[in-house]
Amino acid sequence: MTFAAQGPNEKTKGVAVSFASAGLFSSVRKSLRPILGLLVATTVAIAGSTAAAQAQSKKAAIVIDASTGKTLYSSSADSPRYPASLTKMMTLYLTFEAMSAGRISKDTRVVFSKYASSRPPTKLGVRPGGSITVEQAILGLVTKSANDAATALGELLGGSESNFAKMMTAKARKLGMSSTTFRNASGLPDPGQKTTARDMAILGMSLREHYPKYYSYFSTRSFAFGKSRMPNHNKLLGRVQGVDGIKTGYTRASGFNLVSSVKVGDRKIVAVVMGGASGRSRDAEMERLIAAYMPKASSRGSNPLIAARTIEPQAPIVASVASPLHAKNVPAPEARPEQVIETAYARPLARPADPIADAVAKAEAPTPKVEVDQVKTASVTPSAAPKSGWVIQVGSVGSEAEARALLDKTSDKAAQLLASAEPFTERFEKGGTTYIRARFGGFSNQATATKTCAALKKRSISCYAVQQ
After folding, report:
1. 404 lies in which domain range?
2. Which of 59, 67, 76, 85 does the annotation list as catalytic?
3. Is 299 designated active site?
């Protein structure tokens, strides 16, 4: 008896079917192999082209002659991009502004909140409640690009990081950075935090021109903190002639970013590269741009300067920082007036409506600018100051009109607190430059003045009490 005489049972039928199926599938696989290969190749090609397109869409660059404001090179310079850690340039700008005005010093302690300490790397690793000096925080930002230090500085200067971000955006508008909105102090990913290569160039030039006293921080090659030494992320320092800063940045969404300030002889440029595929390729692109366009920069600066000197009111600081309550000679702003970039050369990008940014810009619109020449020829006689007693200072500005406007604004915001106080202005000179203090007098003792100032700070009014 054989299987053939009996016919296939269920078991042998399954075996037969299996062999038949196997033979069929093998035949089908062989016939489809060229098609499958083509599909795989096509898929890989599409994925590769998509990745390349995404990488290309991040790229943007600009080179500006820092003596004339002329754009020497531009590629997608007005297209929206994520700033990443280039954000810290504005955090440092506002820090330098506060130092210049005497509201903080390099030795002021920066306390780390639980929130600041929890920021993801890179970071210094300061524990909640711990503190470092302002100078250490600055060095932590320019070398290691420390996110925790940036947040802590933002909380010091703004009371909270969210409020500080509004201050950053408002300052960006005043500098002419019309396409930039900040959401945090560090540049950590946030879909609402946008900028352009042109705006970052404006900020880079502003840092150099407005705060030359502090700009040298950007050329720091390394920073010793605790038992660690942190090298600067900017690999072009010391490698490319004339490069003296400014800042690197990277997130997955932004790609590799870099702003460079370069000065060789009488020529100077600011260049921005955004969206690099790697740090090395970004640096190579920056070197190429510097080599190509530095020789084309003006050596005379005969065209209108990009930075026209103007004087602005003191920017607010809502955080309670150490004040010289017992000092009669309070720190005065440095002699050099703050400058504001004139952006006739900037071509703002038509951006989609941003209700939050627009509200900030409207609420904190810049006050009318007063040219330096006007300040020099002003002959307004300040009101008489009280001969003695405790006073509260709310600002130190460049003209009598600005001081009066600051006093009026403060009175409107805190009418009840200052109902019995006497507003007055006081003129003083430092380094050959005249400044006007905006003050409120009539406080009988230190305790009353200090308590009133503390209440003003809760209303986001910068101030300190001092004995007249």
Report:
1. 380-467
2. 85
3. no
- Does 144 qualify as catalytic in the annotation? no
What local confidence, expressed as pLDDT, does residue 120 receive? 95
Secondary structure (H, E, C), the chain? CCHHHHCCCHHHHHHHHHHHHHHHHHHHHHHHHHHHHHHHHHHHHHHHHHHHHHHHHHCEEEEEECCCCCEEEEECCCCCECCHHHHHHHHHHHHHHHHHCCCCCCCCEEECCHHHHCCCCCCCCCCCCCEEEHHHHHHHHHHHCCHHHHHHHHHHHHCCHHHHHHHHHHHHHHHCCCCCECCCCCCCCCCCCEECHHHHHHHHHHHHHHCHHHHHHHHCCEEEECCEEEECCCCCCCCCCCEEEEEEEEECCCEEEEEEEEEECCEEEEEEEEEECCHHHHHHHHHHHHHHHHHHCCCCCCCCCCEEEEECCCCCCCCCCCCCCCCCCCCCCCCCCCEEECCCCCCCCCCCCCHHHHHHHHHCCCCCCEEHHHHHHCCCCCCCCCCCCEEEEEEEECCHHHHHHHHHHHHHHCCCCCCCCEEEEEEEEECCEEEEEEEEEEECCHHHHHHHHHHHHHCCCCCEEEEC
Structural domain contains residue 328: no
Give 361 or 35, the one with higher predicted confidence: 35
One of 58, 67, 76, 88 is an active-site residue; which one?
88
**Residue 410 in domain:** yes
Give the CATH number for residue 454.
3.30.70.1070
Of 311, 329, 357, which residue is a domain's last?
311
Pick from 290-294, 297-301, 330-334: least confident: 330-334
pLDDT exceeds cutoff 90 at 370: no
Q: Are residues 277 and 410 in the same domain?
A: no
The catalytically annotated residue of 76, 100, 145, 178 is: 145
pTM, to two decimals: 0.59
Clarify whether 85 is annotated catalytic.
Answer: yes
Q: Does residue 408 belong to any structural domain of this protein?
A: yes
User: Is the predicted pLDDT of residue 6 greater than 90, yes or no?
Assistant: no
